[in-house]
Amino acid sequence: MTDDLKYSLGAVLSALFAAAGLILTEIAVRSLSVSVVEIAVGSNYVAGTMLLGWSAMRGGHRWTGWGRADWFRLVAGSVATFAAGFLLLYASIGLVGTSKTSLLGRLETIFIVLLAVAFLKERWTPRHWLASMTALAGAVIVNFDPTAWSLDFGWGEGMAVTSALFFAAGIITLKSVLNRHSGPLVTGYGLMIGAVVLTPFLPALQGTATDVSTPIVVLALLCSRGILLGLSWVTYNVAMQHIGASRSSVLFLSIGFLSILLQVTLDALAPGLGLQLPAHLDMAIVGGAVICAGMYFVSTAPDPVPEENHDDPSRS
């Protein structure tokens, strides 16, 4: 197996971890009446603690001596990705629903491509553009719900697009930090920063349900969700360091297809979990096939030119 294929599969594995985490989130919300904000904050703390502990046990990582520029990028990228992006995403879901928010959220890929070319100096060939457009079209088909389609563009739609921009900006900002520091360490810091920033908003955004009668099950679910979140970000960051931010983001679009596969499988094995299957499963399957076509295009495209490291990590 070539390194290129290995890290491309790493980006897909990241999508699989993320899809499994979304399934756990849906089970918690629909079956256990746990707030999505509580899940997000709790899993951030669990994932951040796990990754920081892992970095400490491995040793050889610099916990001090970072330059001011790296700390600034870490905080800015973490707030954008793990705090502002999450808050805008949840607010959009509350206003226009999950289907439209998810559909508009696929614009994140386009934002990442544009930002990577503009700021990371990645070479983006016509084949990469074809792969991006193909995979994005597949993601639209997977998430498209004709009953929810509307040409109206209000606050909810604006928040969905803005959240996609924040996610893309955060990923691009963290890319340069990951070029100089350990992926688990940077991701752990980022998750904890995002959790700390989101925590004050819990009283206003948490759910009102009080019928959770199995706290041990909920705690186990939150821990599992946090572990999956940590694994997803680590594998994504490792892949991004080797194959580029824009290419990794295109491969990560497979999360839509993988989520459907997991939903269908789990619903067949345990229909009592209350999972909400796609309203138009045939369109979802077609969209998954289109995403696979985009993944093929991007996996056979030339490697992007890596970002030059102009910053001295020891400079403060």
Entry keywords:
316 residues; mainly alpha; 13 helices; disordered C terminus
Supply the helix-strand structural class. mainly alpha
Q: How many beta strands in the DSSP annotation?
A: 0
Instruction: Tell me the radius of gyration.
Output: 19 Å
The ordered string of helix (H) and strand (E) elements is HHHHHHHHHHHHH
Low-confidence region ranges: 304-316
Largest sheet: none
Number of helices: 13
Q: DSSP strand (E) fraction?
A: under 5%
Count of structural domains: 1
Calculate the terminal CA-CA distance, rounded to whole Å: 40 Å
Shape: globular
Mean pLDDT: 75
Helix content: over 70%
Structure description:
By secondary structure, the chain is mainly alpha-helical. It has one domain (3-299). Helices cover 75% and strands 0% of the residues. It starts with a helix and ends in a 17-residue tail after the last helix. 49% of the residues are buried.
Write the layout of secondary structure elements.
Elements: H1 3-32, H2 36-58, H3 68-96, H4 98-105, H5 107-119, H6 126-143, H7 155-178, H8 183-198, H9 202-205, H10 215-243, H11 245-252, H12 255-269, H13 281-299
Helix pairs in contact: 1-10, 1-11, 1-12, 2-8, 2-10, 3-4, 3-7, 3-8, 4-7, 5-7, 5-11, 6-13, 8-10, 10-11, 12-13
